[in-house]
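Let's sit down with a protein and look at its sequence and fold side by side. Please make up or recall a protein chain and show it to me in full. Label the sequence line and the structure token line clearly, so we can match residues to local backbone shapes. Go ahead whenever you are ready, and we will take it from there.
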Amino acid sequence: MAAEQHGRHVELAENGEVVALADVEPLEGQGVVRASLHAQSGHLPSGTRTRLVDAVLDLPETRESNRLEATLPLGDAESLDRLRERCDEVQTRPAGASCLVDAALPTDAAAAPGEVGELDEPGRADDPGEPDVQ
């Protein structure tokens, strides 16, 4: 049986080790993209979570959508702050150890700050500015 891939997997690596990742899946015909963001616990390079949010928001699937439904760890202030900077009408609610985020995506994604550029090469990225997208 062949596996079907409906979404994308984004990884940020530092010195060959994955420090943050996200799974992103657009909902067919609804203009909504769902994302689950995770970062390793402990000390991470400054801006790691911000770069992960930027990578998710700069994906073509996300740019073509109107709304974002994201899940991130409760207390992840860096990711939440970046989502508030880049999205409109951000609403949050706790769900156990997670924070659920509903946000309107900007209509002019090309003018969004923190754009990381093209993200279409699979494989791990050891450069913090170049996330891996699969």
Notes: Residues 48-57 form the longest helix (10 residues). Confidence is low (pLDDT under 50) at residues 1-5, 109-128. The radius of gyration is 14 Å.
